């Protein structure tokens, strides 16, 4: 049974402005997001990947940027396995990192939103700095899947490169 606090959080849905902004973006690009009471432990507090989308417990969500990372897994996951949850494929993990940075950039957010101090075993700030300086781990996979152009290839083509995205979901 939902606690009164959890019930209120669901009633408010995604009232926190940053969370609401991220959720609106994810829904706009076709990643389903639903408010839910998540009583069980989740890999990241307050968010679970399920059925090709995100289930979010606003009362338990510790870091709004975690929505971008988990949505990155949905977006870059093999479409044939997308409904099965997050893959343990290291390439998809790196691509989800790059995807979350591109999404944050698209939304005009600081890299510390997806790469916060509480994530990545304490390496969030290092990842934020790395991406901010053009160290784009995971981008070759995004490019291979047709989601973006690597910066050096984009320049030669006269087109915008990563973190600009050509598409937000792997098909």
Number of separate domains: 1
* Outline: globular
Structural class: mainly alpha
Summed over residues and divided by their number, the pLDDT gives a mean of 90
Q: Mind summarizing the main beta sheet?
A: 3 strands, mixed
Discrete helix count: 7
Helix content: 40-55%
Amino-to-carboxy terminus distance:
38 Å
Strand coverage percent: 5-15%
Rg from Cα: 16 Å
The number of distinct β-strands equals 3
| Largest sheet, spatial ordering of strands | 1-3-2
Low-confidence stretches: 1-11
Q: Element order, helices and strands?
A: HHEEEHHHHH
Tell me what you see in this structure:
The protein is mainly α and 171 residues long. It has one domain. It is 42% helix and 6% strand. It contains 7 helices and 3 strands; from the N terminus they run ααβββααααα. A 3-stranded mixed β-sheet has the order 1-3-2. A hairpin with a 2-residue loop joins strand 2 and strand 3. Helix 2 runs parallel beside helix 3 and helix 3 packs across helix 4. The longest helix has 17 residues. The radius of gyration is 16 Å and the shape is globular. The N terminus is likely disordered.
């Amino acid at each position: 049974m939902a606690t009164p606090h959890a019930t209120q959080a669901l009633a408010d849905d995604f009232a926190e402005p940053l969370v609401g902004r991220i959720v609106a973006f994810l829904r706009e690009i076709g990643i389903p997001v639903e408010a839910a009471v998540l009583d069980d432990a989740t890999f990241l507090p307050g968010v679970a990947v399920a059925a090709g989308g995100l289930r979010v417990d606003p009362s338990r969500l510790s870091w709004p940027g975690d929505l971008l990372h988990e949505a990155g897994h949905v977006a870059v996951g093999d479409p044939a396995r997308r409904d099965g949850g997050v893959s343990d494929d290291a390439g998809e993990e790196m691509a989800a990192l790059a995807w979350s940075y591109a999404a944050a950039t698209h939304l005009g957010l600081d890299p510390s939103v997806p790469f916060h101090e509480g994530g990545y075993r304490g390496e969030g700030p290092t990842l934020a700095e790395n991406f901010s300086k053009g160290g784009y781990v995971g981008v070759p996979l995004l490019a291979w899947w047709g989601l973006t152009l690597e910066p050096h290839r984009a320049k030669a083509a006269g087109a915008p490169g990563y973190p600009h995205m050509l598409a937000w979901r792997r098909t």
